[in-house]
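Re: the request from the purification team.
They wanted to know what the chain is likely to look like in 3D before they choose a buffer screen. I agreed to run a prediction and write the result into the notebook, where they can find it.
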Amino acid sequence: MMNGRLQAILGVALLAVAWLARPADAAVSSAIPAVAGAVPPGPARAGRPPEAAPGGAGRFQAYRLPDALVQCRGMHPRLFLDAPQLEELRLAVGSSHSNLWQELCRTADRLAAQGPPAYRADDDGSGDEQLWQREVGNALPTLGLVCRLSADSNRLQAVQAWALAACDYPTWGLGRLDGMDLAAGHQLFGLGLLYDWCYHQLDDTVRRRIRETLTRRAGAMFAAGAAGKVWWHRSHLQNHLWVNVCGLTTAGLALFDEIPEAAAWIGFGLDQCRQTMAALGSDGASHEGLGYWEYGVEYLLKVLHLARQRLETDFFDHDWWRETARFPLYLSLPRATWARDNCIVDLADCGRGHWYGPDHLLWALAREYRDPHAQWLAQEIDRAGVAAPTAPWLNVLWHDPSMRALSPHTLPTLHRFADLEIVSARSGWSGDESLLVFKCGPCLGHKAVQMFDHDPGAGHVHPDANHFVLFGAGEWLIRDDGYAAKWTGQHNTLLVDDTGQMGEGQRWYQPADALAAKSRPSIPRAFSSRALDHVIGDATPAYPARLGLQRFARHLLFLKPDVLIVVDDIALDGVRNLELRFHPETNRCARDGEAFVLSGQHALLRLEPLAASGSDAAAEALPARDRLDGDGPPLFTIRLRKQAAQWRAATALSWAPNGQSPKKVTWEGDVHTWRFHAGTNTVDLDWLTAKAALRAPGSEKP
């Protein structure tokens, strides 16, 4: 009877033969059309699969290895580092990179001392995904680089123990996810890199065990991916595809000169990257939120670096990559307020603390695009101790100490991410400023909604057009619902007949209706001056047509630094039940006439309905759904309600540190102009032109 290892090898071989024999019309072809300009034009690259090749797995069997990779046959290391670069790094870790190196060694030695985790089927959190294995894959490059540079026998023993544990886990995910999703993506990447870096140090038996595991696991993932049998195979704007393609490509690059079928893994990964680059917009933002931006960008950056280094393919000449460092910069909280679990804006599926770095990502972007603001942000994240050290080895590889760092004080205080339609507006760059972030865009961005008829990865989107969050006086004032089930009512926007926007109602956002309707909410105006920012969102297309919504325009008048006036212009085809919701961070609420006064740890927030004729206002804790679509903590909510076919509403928010009084805002108006007074400032909103003008001595007019 043949043993299990021989059975596995024979199984992979039979699977490859079966796919090669498969008729072309039964294979899955590329799902995303080419987009002019998304990938820089140029001569045909040696590594590109032939345009006329058949679809499915057979298409990638024709992938021809580029010369830059062929020249590396038999050479180790060759991924991220070659022998000369390794020697340069040896010098750097003793001088310019000594602090980063010491941190890396401490992390590696801690991992060595703790040892690899024992296998467990259920981690009480991730279900069939077995996400605890991600940390095993993450640990392997850290251990491997320290071992490679230090040549310490104890560290080598730790490397081999962790590698063998990863290989010996009976599953990388459960059921249909075994070897097909994030646990496998991390493990393939970590083992592939370790195999390359420590090739000459590893015991023969360990090296063989890693090679056999990579062959079996990567071969199975490739076959399923090329056949369209994994759920993420067309999710080109989603972190799962990016992680898994990175792992598969890395395994292929580590084994291409030993395992002939590894070339197809590389061809598949490169094709998926091309389709991702064609699908990305131009603004550098992520519909998945900043936490998933960190996660996905780490894996995209890794595979893009390998593609340029060994596959003669450069994806970096792309607007999304040039702009993307702005996303973590403008979605960072004021610098003086940072804490490990509270330093970023939690739009979409995101927490308030960093998940992956992002110091190492920002070092890479700063070096690639000579961006001093990215260098500054990475430096400040490290100084504040708020980074998530998931890949400290990348700090050592990607940090360029010769790059100057420049604070953002010369940058505009308002930035619009024009594809996803997110506006970040702050009162300054002092470090204790107020911050307003507003969202009113297509679920996946203008480009993707126009481009796709299928879902390319919208699960982490929230149904939240015309939603905003607010931070001031050192703390959150108006909040997002965070990583939760997808309900419009958990956001600071409008419900019509107790119904929210397309895509709501489940654990993951459902984009089918929005994509079919080509729904594109937008931000037609984002004006900024020294004292006043005026932003307009048109969320009308976000709602189902059956609700009869004809207009939902929201004006945000940000009187910097401490007053926000929200003006909503709503029209329908008939009388409906309308509700505007606002979710304060705190539930400590008192009334002052018509106003709600909310007491936080550091600040007082005054929220007052203006122009409130015929409407009612109340504050209460409402049920909420958590990320698993179960009962979450109640959301404290201020509800403004009215039965009407038309409704123009104004809500004034003002804030001040505890012990001080927020400004009171008053209103007067007619059908042509609404005028608001706040302290010494007066601002007019002209309904005909949809423009706001600040009427204060010495202030500028839009």
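For the purification team: Residues 1-54, 698-702 have pLDDT under 50 and may be disordered.
Please add any questions underneath this entry.
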